[in-house]
Design goal:
Elements lengths: L1 E10 L7 E8 L4 E5 L6 H8 L2 H4 L3 E9 L2 E2 L4 H7 E4 L12 H11 L4 H14 L15 H12 L6 E5 L7 H16 L3 E5 L12 E6 L2 E7 L8 H4 L24 E10 L2 E10 L4 E5 L6 H8 L6 E6 L2 E2 L2 H7 E4 L12 H6 L8 H7 L15 H13 L5 E5 L7 H14 L5 E5 L3 H7 L2 E6 L2 E7 L5 H8 L1
Parallel strand pairs: 3-8, 3-9, 6-7, 7-8, 13-18, 13-19, 16-17, 17-18
Antiparallel strand pairs: 1-2, 1-4, 4-5, 9-10, 11-12, 11-14, 14-15, 19-20
Amino acid sequence: MITFKNFSYKYINSSKLNIENLNINIKKGECILFTGNSGCGKTTIMRMLNGLAPEFFEGGFEGEMKIAHLSFGDKLSEFSKVVGSVFQNPKNQFFHLDSTSELAFSMENFGKSEEEITSRIETLSEQFSGSHLLDRNILELSGGEKQKLAFMASMMLDAEVYVLDEITSNLDLKAIQLISEIITILKEQGKTIIIAEHRIYYLKNLIDRMFIIKDGKIFHEFQKEDLINFDGTQCRTRQLDLEKVQLLTKKEVVGTKNFLSLNNLKYKINNYFIEHKNLSFDTGKVYAIIGDNGCGKTTFANVLSGFIKNSGEIIINGEKVNNKKLTKNTFQVMQDVNYQLFTNKVETEIKLGCSFLEDFDYVVDKLKLRNLLNRHPNTLSGGEKQRVAIASALLSNKKILIFDEPTSGLDYINMSELANLIEDVKKREIIIFVITHDYEFLCSIADEVLHFDNNGIKEQISLNNETKLKILKKMS
């Protein structure tokens, strides 16, 4: 079905080969996983498989790539008949605001009749329990619903190959389970599935082979039987089995008790109110916030950041503060960091509002940003932009730091470096909140876990070896 033979590729502005001497044969019906550090070449392989390279990502190549009857460089319109693609951010592949129109789009482009289109939508909606997604405003869908819609749209032409590029980065564990079920159905239908991912646990029982990519080359290949006892820490990758995740050994930090207090705090989310009677948080601790998509985790972060009107009391170190003072004391790294990049140079961006420059070199090197300092922030990848915003937060010297899904797009090494940085920074008499669906990261950084539901904080749990599987169950 797919063959790479002595294949190398170099983007037009790259100083080195982005893919080097790739030799792979993929059979029809196989489920293949590519993993490895950010920038290793996974996404480049995906772009070659779906035809985006070289049509949209220009470059030179040597060797041979075949996918079904197509060769590298054939028209993108021909690739779209054979390959269905789903990307990390589904918003980047939507053409309509109406969900049903989005599903119809690809078949309309190929001149299919209204009857054929309607029949295909009905078939997919039934197969994948997607009827509730029809005739919806896409902007009102949850992250998991958007990704499911993008998946269904990629299947409208009944492609033989599916290319999935980090599709779970922004999803909670329940939405990821939904994605796993869709991949299972595709595999049962005999489709060939190629996946590039950092978070790989949900593929444990699906993949036939796994390739670790390093510097554009295959570093290691694992057959299905090799994956039974796979330990990601040995290969510097994420884990295939979340029960193998170990807690990071942390030194206890003695901080200020009740540094942040919330008394009768009340605020609105959607059409109802959330109220927190009496909550308090200590410096020197990292509080991980978990809960289903849409339950109000980010709204809570926005309240603490001074972005949302509220009633009641917010007290920082004995002083009652209003929203204006909250914004001076809090730094939030948003889930979509594009909203908070303002300058035309990475170094300037990191230093903007920075009041702790003595740690600049340390933070920049830990987050592997040194070679990006002269770049424009808008030219960076999603993961690189996120690391820039995180660096700004860590150097801001503010009393409350909030990270909203900081590991979306981060590989094992960058996740570990970020965890170590947070462990160092929390000694500075600050409070850190981390909204996350990433259980591996949570186990690396959290002291306590705040479990949210639609009524606010349902439970507060200290993280230790006795409670970690309980927390995993709540996240699932």
